[in-house]
């Protein structure tokens, strides 16, 4: 219930124009890197609540990939 209320609150204030403005030069500092299965596309991603380093990725052709170091390996 709390997550639903938080989502509705964020959506409401975003619609009112209280969303944070991000300056274009901040996007230049972002670096992308490949973290998914090679030669495939990821159709689902989920993290573990309370552990910022564990993520699971589901591949379109089948299989689940797991990282325990935030996507480094």
Describe this structure in words.
The protein has 73 residues and is of the alpha+beta class. The chain has a domain at 39-73. It contains two helices and three strands. It has a three-stranded antiparallel β-sheet, with no helix packed on it. The chain is extended, with a radius of gyration of 17 Å. The protein starts with a helix and ends in a 6-residue tail after the last strand. The model has no long low-confidence stretch (mean pLDDT 77).
Mean of pLDDT: 77
Which strand-content bin applies to the residues?
Answer: 25-35%
Low-pLDDT sequence parts: none
- The helix content is 10-25%
Please give the number of β-strands: 3
Summarize the main sheet.
3 strands, antiparallel
Distance between the termini: 35 Å
Described by the principal axes of the CA atoms, the overall outline is: extended
- Helix and strand succession? HHEEE
The spatial strand order of the largest sheet comes to 1-2-3
Total DSSP helices: 2
Radius of gyration: 17 Å
> Helix/strand/pairing class, anyone?
alpha+beta
Q: What is shown here, in short?
A:
This protein is 25% helix and 27% strand. With 73 residues, the chain is α+β, with helices and mostly antiparallel strands. The chain has a domain at 39-73.
């Amino acid at each position: 219930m709390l997550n639903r209320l938080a989502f509705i609150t964020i959506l409401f204030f975003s619609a009112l124009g209280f969303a944070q403005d991000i300056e274009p030069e901040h996007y230049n500092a972002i670096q992308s890197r490949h973290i998914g299965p090679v030669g495939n596309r990821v159709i689902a991603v989920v993290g573990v609540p309370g552990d910022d380093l564990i993520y699971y990725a589901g591949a379109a052709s089948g299989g689940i990939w797991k990282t325990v170091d935030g996507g480094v390996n």
